[in-house]
Amino acid sequence: MFKINYNYIKIIGLIVLVSFLFAFSNLRNKTRKVSEPNITFLGENKLFITDANVSKLLIVNQEPVSEQPKEIIDLNKLESALKSNPMIKQAEVFMSVNGALSAEIEQKRPIARVHTNASYYIDDEGGYMPLSYNYAARVPLVTGNIEKNKLETVFQFAKTVDEDDFLKKHIIEIRQNDDNTIDFKIRKCDFTVHVGTLKQLKKKMNNFKAFYQKALKDQVLDHYSKVNLKFDKQVICTKK
User: Which range is least confidently modeled, 29-38, 47-56, 182-191?
Assistant: First the structure.
């Protein structure tokens, strides 16, 4: 007489039940709707682009990413969309198992503002950064002969200014001349400072600091119309 092995039946039943629960859970997870994105701005620069601006970039099939099925979300495409914004330096998008979407944004940092027939910022890596409707950075203006695809000279000078507390406090305008030499103006003074080329720039700027401190002490800063740093061993001043 054939004897039924109930242990085998129990095992098969258990396998079927587990498979059904796994399939059901997987289907439910795929159709789970994505929540409103949680946006975090990294670093100090949180002023130029807002949460609303970022949310508008997080779209799938021309619709906001929130309330869309989790299974159709491509995190790489969302990251690429964020990085395409010229205000954003770096972006990372990730999603939890329950459909909570998060985005971490690092904004670009401007160090100078070009003010010619076109207006835009130069960021701290020498790249183009558009002006923001949300905030205007207090950085030196850049004037003169400027081309968007030839920013290296003015960037190197602006970077030197940005990295020096004294220069950052005092320099308000940087001018690039037709021959690629650099002039600048400082706060509360009428004279123009001619740097020339960027050769021996550190030494030239140290010479300027020494001149400024001496002229400030002697109360003669307003006696000059031009200060020439072109020669790295001396400062030549032209009186008004």
Answer: 29-38
Q: Nearest-CA neighbor of 154 among 119, 101, 190, 113?
A: 113
Torsion of CA 225, 229, 234, 238, to 10 degrees: -10
Quote the pLDDT of residue 3.
52
d(CA 84, CA 102): 18
How far CA 47 is from CA of 88, 109, 136, 154, 168, in Å, comes to 11, 10, 9, 24, 20
The Cα–Cα gap between 228 and 22 comes to 78
pLDDT at 20: 44
Count the Cβ atoms, other than its own, within 10 Å of residue 196.
Answer: 19
Mean pLDDT of 123-145: 94
Tell whether the torsion through CA atoms of 164, 170, 174 and 175 is positive or negative. negative
- Asked if the model's pLDDT at residue 1 lies above 50, the reply is no
> Between β-strands 88-95 and 101-107, what pairing exists: parallel, antiparallel or unpaired?
antiparallel
Is there a contact between 239 and 228 (Cβ–Cβ < 8 Å)?
Answer: no
- Extract the tokens encoding 115: 């003010």
> Which residues sit opposite 115 in a β-bridge?
119
Pick the more confident residue, 78 or 21. Answer: 78
Nearest Cα residue to 184 out of 221, 214, 141, 215: 141
In angstroms, the Cα distances linking 171 to 185, 192, 205 are 6, 11, 12
Instruction: Quote the pTM value.
Output: 0.80
Beta strands in 98-162 (DSSP E): 101-107, 110-115, 119-123, 128-129, 141-144
Considering Cα of 202, then 205, then 211, then 213, what sign does the dihedral take? negative
